Amino acid sequence: MIDFELSPEALKAQERVRTICENVFRKISRKYDENEHSEMPELHELAEELKGEGGLRGGMNRDFLTNVIVTEELSWGDLGLTLAWPEGGLGNAAINAVATPEQKARFGKATASMAITEPGCGSDTSNITTTAKLDPETNEWIINGEKIFITGGKTYDNVVVWATLDRSLGRAAIKSFVVEKGAPGRELVKLEHKLGIRSSDTVAMVFNDCRIPYENILGSPEIKTRGGFKGAMATFDATRPGVAAMGIGVARAALDFTKETLEKEGITIPYDKGMHDLSAVQKAVLDMEAELEAARLLTWRAATMLNKGVRNSLEASMGKAKAGRMATLVTQRCVEILGPCGYSRDWLVEKWMRDCKITDIFEGTGQIQMLIIARQILGYTRAELK
Ligand SMILES: Cc1cc2nc3c(=O)[nH]c(=O)nc-3n(C[C@H](O)[C@H](O)[C@H](O)COP(=O)(O)OP(=O)(O)OC[C@H]3O[C@@H](n4cnc5c(N)ncnc54)[C@H](O)[C@@H]3O)c2cc1C
From the CB of 367, is ligand 1 less than 6 Å away? Predict the structure, then answer.
């Protein structure tokens, strides 16, 4: 049986992050939404201050459920700032999930972004064209290709790049490589302007004969024609619960604000009445709370399975599919219910509606999660259901 009782460490971290969000994140939330791509000294000062406590994310050793809880809390504060947080990004989660102890020791302290998407390849990662070739003389990998939409590619040091060792061998030949800051041939070529999460940078990079040490490959260089891609995909099992938690955090922010605003107008939410005694707005809020809780439970289940070392691909996709869709719908409904307060830039609800959409897009869109879930439940292969 899965037990969701939170550890004292998780509860303490949750409370600590909540206070920080109220005192710092919420206060600078609008400023850095309006001033996209500007430096954020408050964030760096806070990160420096928290170093003594092991940082907000508690380094690489915290359990997955606590990470998910902390991520929900941070995202309740501000998702853009969460994604820009100076302790690292999705690349760190990938390194944490699949790196050897030696690699964890080498890369563990550096921040890392994740580069999978290319101009001609998004959802279907088997179309990756970026190549990695081994130079037998120097024992270095030579990376060539273009990656787009890299979250934190400007802020973070290293970037985990997905590249193919041999395009003719399809998905099995796709491996991930850590390309360190300053690697020759690595170049940032574009900063995106975005709908939401505007305080977090999103960049395009090119790799032009970019040379990295042999030891920077994550996992084995061996190309296994059966199941070879599973290692690379396993990083998603670790990162998708985190992305789901982001959506849950933003949805909760919108719902909390909506309930507080309604309460000021004398509309409270009763938990002990039948449907026929509820107003339309009360029912809408109760429905949204139920949806949010369902997404959270699915996400916590996926994280708890990771803690136990149990394969959670199906559950991670379920949590992400549910949370991304729930957050999109809940934030839109909150904007709707609040009318002008929802639409005005005087409040943050319109921003939360823009910010949360990304949780239904990156790390695999909602539609792709549904495909993964359907394949696993119905027993279809990728070729049979695409
Ligand atoms: C702000 C932002 C940050 C990002 N950060 C990162 C990052 O850090 N690293 C990274 O590598 N990428 C990142 N991405 C890219 C993101 O992961 C991709 O946009 C996403 O995977 C979808 O790929 P695509 O845009 O090429 O869409 P496509 O794959 O072209 O899909 C377009 C639409 O078709 C749907 N679709 C595609 N195939 C199917 C199918 N078989 N069945 C049903 N529907 C389907 C999709 O769900 C989507 O709605 C980011 C994107 C954004 C916007």
Answer: yes
